[in-house]
């Protein structure tokens, strides 16, 4: 078995991007119309990769955890997002270039400019750059590189560590204090203003019903809560799950698939008893270690991570509850399974000001890539926020009603009205009086009871209406009450996946170049998600190969493995190179020995090792490899190496 | 094996709708906010059914035919739909209620009102209704039922057969002539006006970039044509395929899932040589018979269908070409496979005025249901329309360049200019003169050649500019030209599936009630698409059943079959009834005999037959049933009937 050196060449983003474009993983949408920032189309390779990721997600979460799948509407009437708080608060701060009028996202501007200054400083100190560029072009608006005072550099680092914690006025203050200009023009920027990120539209022909494109799928789960609960026979906890498109009208998206205006999400809303956030399967994950960056570390201006056993993290209160921790582990397991590099994954806790308006705690699974650390999965505790606001707005009860095993028995003061006397005495005001009495709490009832002992008293409502009453009007007695139903609004733990971000980082984590030739890129995608698992290459267009190719295809398909045939006229070598770029893990070559001796050669993508065996044997080994039943070294034990020569007539 | 009578009770839409709501197949979106017409959410049953239909679609089309999958953007900048013709022409005619201002779709109004009059007439003639309802309520705006003259009834029928062929002014004329009012208010309606069905929005924070939500996925395929062609190694024919959400801002949607504002489509764009629309696999489908309703029959005011062998339909010119016919067969096979009733499927050809602006021929797969015959799949020949308009607008070549096996050799007149003399003589006008000469066709060159034989002549451009020339300025000679590349814009055959419509009709076609109890509804969905294939029911919550249930689950999963466990406290009978409504084909009951003797009972949904065998035997038979390897009678041969009694300790 050949040894493989995947790190011979350092990561080169431009090469990867060229590969992704050439092999049509994705491309700017509306490219022939000049494109639109933040909108991308997935080609055959990207679509297939995405479909495989979604398929695994569905198995790992929906099927494994028996979640209830949903497919809800994107176009949403305005009142829903008014209630959810998105109309008022789902916004980013933007600043205007004072001369060109271009809009920039304020926090990204600060990050870019201060980050650049720190990088320049680093370069100058290490001697890899010149302090003043004498030949600087007039048109180049890039400010000259300068060395920073130690204190200034330290201040910048602290700002960047806390960046997500600043509000608009604070970002404006930072721009002024640190003379942060638009880097494209070197113009000053104005005061930050808020821009709502939801796309707006109008439903129906009248223009009277404004709508928004959903920025998350979550509201679709909450609005259907009662139906879901009923489907689950009234029992909690349960989770709903949805995979679908969402939209955010980003201010000036510039980071490829990492910041887009339209994207596919996979969201889980796990509804749980607020008094019991334990998870029945927690014991099975308690020993897993995660890399954590908690809020206290960040608020102290640091980004140093800790490796913690999840069981300890919950016990120490670093992670708030078992359910949140259980999902963090499951998220981590999913990401590793599809091929994310474990060394470039961490969970970062949100800081106070950074949290979305609906969340009480949130941990992001962040993946490191050439743009930095990027949030790819959020895992938030939304508490009872959403169900509460929708229930209040619509008057619909969004609650769980649970029969108590043992009824709660308690004593309390209970008022009983004599309706006849009340009606006769207060006539039209009887209802006001009745409502007032029914609204009295324990303490008020005790007080009224003692006042009535005097034979007569006056009751005054909040609106200032007075009623004179005697003990004839009502009796107040201490009674034993039995409560057999508990009613509560469940809390929600929400793991929310940005599939496009995960897909992009996955490509970065699996891209490398052959040691002997930097131009020969390889995507080492695991068979589980690779767009094509097996490539079948007939040596030439000779008709004799056709039935063998068809037979291999059919056999693989019966094992549930979908292969592709490449019968193009290119050399086998070129076809293999193309498939290394497409991430195809295995290649089968049909040649004259296949016709005469029934043999087949098998090529492994990463090692470029070739093995030989009978057609049936090789097909069965490929099936085992694709299903993860064996790995390549095990396959090599079963198949002899192919030396590239075979005696054929 | 029990006999099943599925037609004991006539179809009852209200019962079906109650079932679909109760079992959360789908529900009005934003229901707790009062709902929005034409927007629906799919619950767990509907999502799973939809996912299974999509899965089968992907296998049947994308994998089986090696199509290139795409996933493109919904939010589309305005220029794309300006070019494609949708901004100008993707509209419906609507009329306004003259008093309430409500908007109604004009063709639907005509259909509803004339259809009702015909139905009333029918009722009166058959004696099932009274001509004048003496107790008619004042508020009821329904016009009284009247008998129609035979000629009037005939006229209505003719109008309805041609309804899709009328334009706006004609629909307005129909409303006036036949006194067609808004049936909800009995108010007159105004003149029809056009309403564009695309939802509008705005991209980015400036408000300067209008966008539309795509009303079809097709443009995403066309805009990526060059990349797709390149991915396919420059070869045609090939097909791209996409499953995704589209949006149409319907005027007043009222037909449940059949007319919605947001829907999931599955679209194929098959790119083909315009001079060769043969299909390589046509022979394999030529003997299939389809039910056809061609345009000539409809234009003669009839809706009588013909059963035709596809081979004959192409030979006789009823279906325009092999590729169109091939896809019609594949569409039909797909619909039958997922459970559509073959007797309620037909292909209807579009009439001239009815065709979308981009189509040259179109056949709809229509499925009959309680709303009538509904288009569920369109199969259109879009010719070169889209690629041509986008290419013209953007200046990007969207063509196939094909090396000719044998170069085309032909003789032609060729003009060769003496650039020096032309430049010197005509100076600034030289370019105009050159362009004019280069644009001359064969005949004009022959004429000019003979004129030059006189030594001098005058050339006049289309703009009226004259040039006096002599043979020194140019020579015109007959030359042999060799063309080795053929360049052409491919044509497109487009099968386009409305998945929500198919899903709804599938539910109607598979719904029935038990003969002995009309309230016991059953959905006889084929295992291929049923939301859950196998239900595992432990008799009670006894702990002894748990390992057996887990074992059966795991065994089924290894066969790729996902089961559900129903361990709720309801009786087995109630759990079975619930699963009949959910369309679950098989039930496995774990009882004390399972614990003591290792047996398992298997229940079939439609017959309610119960069979018994060892756990392994039953699990293996269920797997075969779900994969369609055996049918129920075959399973019955392998398993004895269960009489409901077993000796256990």
TrEMBL record, chains A, B:
GO terms for cellular component: mitochondrion. This is glycine--tRNA ligase. It comes from the Eukaryota. One of its GO terms (biological process) is mitochondrial glycyl-tRNA aminoacylation. Its EC number is 6.1.1.14. Residues 147-531 form the Aminoacyl-transfer RNA synthetases class-II family profile domain. The lineage of its organism: Eukaryota, Fungi, Dikarya, Basidiomycota, Agaricomycotina. Homodimer. Its main location: cytoplasm. One of its GO terms (molecular function) is ATP binding. Residues 122-143 are annotated as: Disordered. It catalyses: 2 ATP + H(+) = P(1),P(4)-bis(5'-adenosyl) tetraphosphate + diphosphate. It is found in: Cytoplasm. Keywords: Aminoacyl-tRNA synthetase, ATP-binding, Cytoplasm, Ligase, Nucleotide-binding, Protein biosynthesis, Transferase. It comes from Cylindrobasidium torrendii FP15055 ss-10. Transmembrane segments: none annotated. Belongs to the class-II aminoacyl-tRNA synthetase family.
